[in-house]
Amino acid sequence: MSACLILAIESSCDETAASVVRDGREVLSNTIYSQIDLHTLYGGVVPEIASRKHIDKINYVIETALKEAGVTLDDINVVAVTYGPGLVGPLLVGLSAAKAIAWAKNKPLVGVNHIMGHISANYLEHPELEPAFGSLVVSGGHTHLINVNSYTSVEVIGRTYDDAAGEAFDKVARAIGLGYPGGPKIDKAAKEGNPKAIDFPRGKVDGSEYDFSFSGLKSAVLNYLNKAAMKNEEISIPDVAASFQAAVVDVLVDRAVRCVREYNMKSFALAGGVASNSALRASLEEAMKKEGVKFYVPSPILCTDNAAMIGAAGYYAYMDGKRDDLGLNAIANLRL
Ligand code: KG4
Ligand code: ZN
Q: What is this structure's pTM?
């Protein structure tokens, strides 16, 4: 069988991205235009500004991805695009571009769930990884423990009751004056700090072994900062960053380990923007080694939002027979 070339498009948040992926496993190009600098001015993603910037950049990233892969639209077999979850305006930009190409070039269109994309990033760098396996998806909007039954069917075992892990990183970073985006800045500051300096709570959800709650931790950090300010005490930003990060990592690793034990999983894959966190990667790798479970995580560039992961997920959806028509709409709260 000849190769299947997917043109993938991703615009669900603040990255405008396009990629060409061969047979769901091989990245021929991975173009990402990050809007982070623009949104840093406002301390977070401004949806309307993101939509406009996506419009500015979408054709540029698609053309660049095709050029870098050394192909033209005529060589493409399938157009895959994120249609949710995410910000509806930004999603519509990528979706409209994908539909226009699919229509003009008469190519099949496949809508992809962004979370399935994050999980599938692991297929791009780990040729031996095949379902079934467990997965922890931690991003700015999601914290999910998942049983990946097949390439196209997953079962959510645990989720956050309030903030997502990345959201907690971003909010705490803002509170300690590190700015946006918080995750990478806390990761860096924590390297100079003591993770045992402050004993922040490890959030639990009553009666649920696999769910997460990060709002109590976030409040504990804010209380700590307020108390210090009232007493005129100086705080150590690296210590707060390291202690907060340790609390998040402990909880994530604890739930993941429970999950592999209970479900007797043989492999476990970490995914999502927070999967680029150095402490989480190291702790989870060590914990899975102890459990005798094979551990996978993509390179940081494939953890944060990109279109290559959408190409991987889109390939398997296409092989499973998924086809969308031009009526496909963006779904901001699309579930797994
Ligand atoms: O997956 P992603 O790029 O976008 C969403 O789908 O949300 O994830 C972005 C999130 C942000 O909250 C960001 O602060 C966090 O991932 N993040 C990190 C790191 N790099 C990005 N969190 C912790 N440590 C990092 N190194
Ligand atoms: Zn994402």
A: 0.97
